[in-house]
Amino acid sequence: MLWRFLARLLVTSWTIAIGSAFLCAQQLPVTRLDGSKILPAQIDATVTGSMEAARVTGVGIAIWNNDEVVYLKAYGVRDLAKHLPLTPDSVMTAASLTKAAFATMVIAVVHDRILELDKPVYEYLPKPLPEYQAYRDLADDPRYQQITMRMLLDHTSGFPNWRSISDDKKLRIYFPPGSRFAYSGEGIDLAQLVVETVTRKSINQLMQERIFQPLGMARTSMVSEKRFEDDRANRYDEEEKSLGFEERNRGDAAGSMQTTLRDYARFVEAVLSAAIPDKQDREVMLSPQIQIISKREFPSLASETTTDNRAIHLSYGLGWGLYWTPYGKAFFKEGHAEGWRHYVVCFDRAKAGMLIMTNSSNGEDIYSGLLEKLLGDTFTPLEWEGFKPSTRALLNHP
Fold first, then answer.
1. Residue 28 has what pLDDT?
2. Whether pTM exceeds 0.90
């Protein structure tokens, strides 16, 4: 209750501060992690050159210094056929960036003692989990009774990313819940069912009340809305062919959020500055829950392991990936869907970070270059995530 009151009380000052930073964004130099500076003209040249080389249709960039957005700009187009530019207010599907915002909302529900992180989630439901149509495949596997909200948010439930990976399309628990990391959209969907059940509110309503409205995210929703049609982004494949506008008519915590560069930057800034959730809850959310030893993030159930990421303490918190650098702890999240490629990473001690949002299936090809040249980030484990590593990381690889 207090958390929500303070969030609403501060929203006006946040909006003014963020708005002022946006007005100055194209005029002030940006400070990289190592303290060096990069000028707006250099940022423009780097972004446009990267886009051209990788055939990225549109990209939005937000950069934080000292907990504040100091650069925010959109490049390219939101509609090739109509020659409409991408803007900071162009609505895009957030894909899995949704999961981080959802987890932050769940932490607020836990704060209000409506949910517990370590109570088996089936105990919150009015009937046994296998009696729900989506979970009937679990009827003969009692391990579902071990799954907690913590396991769903840190991706240790034992579920696959999606049940569609199996030949028969059935949902299974592939390893003892809590024993290892395996990224799972299925787990996030179960978390949504539980939260909606205990609060008796839809995911749309919960996210509006707990995240979007307090932070002034006026062009964000868990579903498509007609009011977004004045400025929404089309999406494009690897050949820059249109995939059409995406309509999301059902709220899905795993990836349906409709948002903009400006709005998602507001959300990340609030997390980076410990404005939402509060400092204590944020510490829980961004604390390691499970060490990651998998060779790659995907496919999520692959058995190959590695010690390559032990030095950076690669792990997962609640809704966010974590690793450690000379600049302290970093937290990150990817967003990947057809025609959408997004990435965000923040460095806690440095109070710096960067958000990349694209309406192109080629978007992942520019992450490493932009992170390295604009932010000075050569630490993000892009190779584990399935992206091209930075040039410096390649040179230093044994």
1. 87
2. yes
Interhelix angle 261-272/2-24, nearest 10 degrees: 120
Cα angle value 346/96/243 (rounded, 5°): 120
> What tens digit of pLDDT does each residue of 304-347 get?
999 999 999 999 999 999 999 999 999 999 999 999 999 999 99
- Provide the 3-class DSSP secondary structure of residue 58: strand
Label residue 244 exposed, middle or buried (CB < 10 Å: 0-12, 13-18, 19+). exposed
Distance CA 357, CA 334 (A): 10
Q: What is the pLDDT of residues 192-251, one digit of tens each?
A: 999 999 999 999 999 999 999 999 999 999 999 999 999 999 999 999 999 999 999 999
Residue type at position 75: Y
DSSP letter assigned to residue 135 = G
Rounded Cα gap, residues 373 and 336, in angstroms: 22
Question: Which residue do the tokens 């040179």 mark?
Answer: 395
Please list the alpha-helical segments (H only) found in the chain: 2-24, 40-54, 97-111, 149-153, 185-199, 203-207, 261-272, 279-285, 367-370, 382-385, 391-396
The C-alpha atoms of residue 94 and residue 334 are separated, in whole angstroms, by 10
Q: How many CB atoms lie within 10 A of CB 32?
A: 19
Tell which residue, 83, 19, 55, 84, has the closest CA to residue 232: 84
Contact 190, 157 (CB under 8 A): yes
Is residue 299 reached through a cis peptide bond, with omega within 30 degrees of 0 on the bond before it?
yes
Q: Tell me if 375 sits within 8 A of 133, measured CB to CB.
A: no
Cα Rg of the chain, angstroms: 20
Task: Give me the domains of the chain, ranges plus CATH numbers.
Answer: 2-396 (3.40.710.10)
Query: Token pair for residue 204?
Result: 């749309």
